């Protein structure tokens, strides 16, 4: 594991221009990767990512997150259990979510953005509207971590409130950026949420811990067409209001 940095130390670059370029690159090039190479990720690299991510902002320093890392036989076994349920409509229809990640009623512009990214992905894969079988198969790849060698699950104590979800979201972003800076890619996945009870049982996660989301971690397979997907982002002027007087 890497040596802990002095939190008051100057940047390890010759100028802040280099710092901003490195940070900006990691931010802009982070994407949800949906096809990974089988190349293993060393435990030391996972620990290195978590080592720096733990310094994420958190209200009154409560640090509410907990990380569960699955690899090897455990990851394969968990994927098999989840996919067996996912392929059984009777069993999967009875599943519930640990919390409302998405709104119960979609409105514009959010529903339009959601549809666009979905159809752009299906378009790349040659999946036509109405092809429910192929949609199901593609969605099921979530539960195989898109073939990534590492799966992560993030939980918080159930006694915590919405602020801890905000803190954990910042922690997730730090994990993804730290991974990107090390040449790795990620895919955060709320798709795992409805299987929170299955995951808790398989990993012996205590009842007091609530699943926030899962994440795939590994090296992107750039030969796969789905990894050419680049989502749009609205300009700053669309979501920012400046006040001066």
UniProtKB/TrEMBL annotation:
Stretches of the chain forming a coiled coil according to its record: none
Taxonomic lineage from the root: Bacteria, Pseudomonadati, Pseudomonadota, Betaproteobacteria, Burkholderiales
Broadest EC class assigned to this enzyme: oxidoreductase
Name listed for the protein in its UniProt record: Nitrobenzene nitroreductase
KW Manganese (keyword) present: no
Keywords: Flavoprotein, FMN, Oxidoreductase
Start and end residues of each Nitroreductase domain: 28-219
PANTHER family according to UniProt: NAD(P)H NITROREDUCTASE YDGI-RELATED, NITROREDUCTASE
GO MF, one annotated term: nitrobenzene nitroreductase (NADPH) activity
EC number(s) stated in the UniProt entry for this protein: 1.7.1.16
Cofactor(s) this protein cannot do without: FMN
Species of origin: Paraburkholderia haematera
Domain of life: Bacteria
């Amino acid at each position: 594991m890497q040596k802990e940095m002095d939190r008051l130390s100057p940047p390890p670059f010759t100028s802040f221009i280099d710092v901003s370029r490195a940070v900006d690159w990691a931010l802009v090039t982070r994407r949800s990767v949906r096809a990974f190479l089988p190349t293993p990720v060393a435990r030391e690299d996972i620990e290195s990512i978590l080592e720096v991510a733990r310094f994420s902002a958190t209200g009154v320093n409560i640090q509410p997150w907990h990380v569960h890392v699955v690899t090897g036989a455990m990851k394969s076994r968990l994927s098999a259990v989840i996919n067996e349920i996912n392929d059984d409509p009777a069993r999967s229809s009875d599943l519930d979510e640990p919390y409302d990640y998405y709104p119960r009623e979609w409105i514009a512009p959010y529903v339009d953005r959601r549809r666009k990214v979905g159809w752009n992905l299906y378009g790349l894969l040659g999946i036509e509207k109405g092809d429910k079988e192929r949609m199901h198969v593609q969605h099921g790849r979530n539960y195989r971590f898109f073939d990534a060698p590492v799966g992560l699950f993030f939980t918080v104590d159930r006694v915590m409130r919405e602020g801890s979800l905000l803190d954990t979201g910042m922690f997730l972003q730090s994990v993804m950026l730290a991974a990107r800076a090390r040449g790795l890619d990620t895919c955060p996945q709320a798709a795992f949420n409805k299987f929170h009870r299955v995951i808790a049982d398989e990993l012996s996660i205590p009842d007091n811990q609530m699943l926030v989301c899962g994440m795939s971690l590994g090296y992107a397979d750039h030969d796969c067409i789905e990894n050419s997907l680049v989502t749009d982002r609205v300009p700053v002027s669309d979501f920012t209001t400046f006040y001066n007087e």
